Amino acid sequence: MSDLREWDRIIIGIDPGTNVMGYGLLGVKGKKLSMIALGVIRLSKFESHYLRLSRIFERVQGLVEQYLPDEMAIEAPFFGKNVQSMLKLGRAQGVAIAAALSRDVPITEYEPRKIKMAITGNGAASKEQLREMLRRILDIPAESLDIELDATDALGAALCHYYESSRPVQAKGPSSWKEFIARNPGRVR
Known about the structure:
The protein is an alpha/beta fold. 43% of the residues lie in helices and 20% in strands. It has a 5-stranded mixed sheet with strand order 3-2-1-4-5.
């Protein structure tokens, strides 16, 4: 592991899951981006859903304490047809968020399509396409990404957050001449 003080900013990405939860840490130094860490939290060995949630809380809190991220980007659950699966996934996401918030880490949530769009230019890209673009953008050796796609999805969330939060804020101009005149009464006659 590199010295964490070398980074201007560290972003942790989380891809929530109840069987496998992915995480990825992105280091930012000026305009240079690097993968700091990547991995998964395996949860299927725990029989009880509540034990899985407890493990998610412990591991996410541990990652926050180990890497000291400045921000967290988390993938929003997608809406499927199985309501029970959605509830479990939402709980997993909520527990991961609570673990980060317990250490005062700000959270931003991104839809899976938005993450894929930000990284690949295609909101319907496959998980494999996302992984390959991350490899190219961050110059990661292919063997370093020989891991579950949940981990690269999490790293994608972190990179998406970097892109979204690094955009310059654009001033919103008037939407009509009438609004312009109302905003600038002394400039218009």
